[in-house]
Amino acid sequence: MFLVLLYFALPLVDVLLSAEVSGLPGGDRLDCVKASDQCLKEQSCSTKFRTLRQCVAGKESNFSRATGLEAKDECRSAMEALKQKSLYNCRCKRGMKKEKNCLRIYWSMYQSLQGNDLLEDSPYEPVNSRLSDIFRLAPIVSVEPVLSKGNNCLDAAKACNLNDTCKRFRSAYITPCTSSTSNEICNKRKCHKALRLFFDKVPPKHSYGMLFCSCRDVACTERRRQTIVPVCSYEDREKPNCLNLQESCKKNYICRSRLADFFTNCQPESRSVSSCLKENYADCLLAYSGLIGTVMTPNYIDSSSLSVAPWCDCSNSGNDIDECMKFLNFFQDNICLKNAIQAFGNGTDVNVWQPILPVQTTTATTTTASRLKNTGSETTNNEIPSHNDSPACANLQVRE
């Protein structure tokens, strides 16, 4: 009985911990759109916020005659004043109606006054969920390690077609992701937008079932790799340098935010039980799936491992080769992400009976170079490639 009570009490503990660190009365943080509306109704806040936005835009001459150090001091003063307002603690929700506008407001608060590195803190409100919450609802995921010799990814696709929401949003991305045009294989922009909607709107028990299904042969792993339609959404004529791709991502509010969320929630930590700094597989998988449908869209590299990567490499990196490899290895050799994928496929989670506190760090924010570390290549038992089966590409038709 005690274990049962503790099992249902843990989610409440997560909520209370989240409320404690939010820094606002009652633990409630406004989304940035509402916080901005509040700020604009208050003259002192409105003035400082407009100043800060002009600082971010680099238009010092438009808001002050001061230049150089004086202008920078004015920018810092505006930020310090806004730290006392709810706007400073605002966050966004993935897939919300005004997500792009919300993220634009968020980044206007943070993106330029702390340098040009990718910022570490996620702009998204924590979900406070665990994989065990998904397992209780997912009919295709067993609570025991997967022993079936069948194709779990095919079973996941069939389960998607039996769910109206999953089937509708899957149909919505199949069309733009496979239709040819005169200039390219497909309309990548429309394909990416439809993929984002799929992973934002479809319940994880179905979307994760297709993306993180456990496999024992190549036919299954190839179907899993084909879930996001690689030819259109993932591959391109040439592979860009990963640092250039990162820069391109940072110019888009949604991509920048999803990447920051991924770095935050899939940060490896060797001292933790799960090998994740946040000790939360569900948050890592949510952050990873959030990258799909952006220019940083990752996918499985091959059919023999759980290694993933965006469509980029580190050729022509020059003196930045080490930084580029750290960035790429955060995807390819991320033991936190690999453990999270394997945990979903095997129906296991971080110890759900005992509350686990995240490993504390000495600073709240760090640079990209210090956060991205080589974690070493790890092997997994989640996939046992069969050399007797040839790869079978997934059937992109909605009907399986």
From TrEMBL:
Residues 32-114, 153-232, 242-336 form the GDNF/GAS1 domain. Residues 1-18 form the signal peptide. It is a lipid-anchor; GPI-anchor. Residues 364-400 are annotated as: Disordered. The keyword Ribonucleoprotein does not apply. Keywords: Cell membrane, Glycoprotein, GPI-anchor, Lipoprotein, Membrane, Receptor, Signal. GO terms for biological process: cell surface receptor protein tyrosine kinase signaling pathway; nervous system development. Residues 370-389 have a biased composition (Polar residues). One of its GO terms (molecular function) is signaling receptor activity. GO terms for cellular component: external side of plasma membrane; receptor complex. It comes from the Eukaryota. It is found in: Cell membrane. PANTHER family: GDNF FAMILY RECEPTOR ALPHA-1, GDNF RECEPTOR ALPHA. Belongs to the GDNFR family. This is GFRA1 protein.
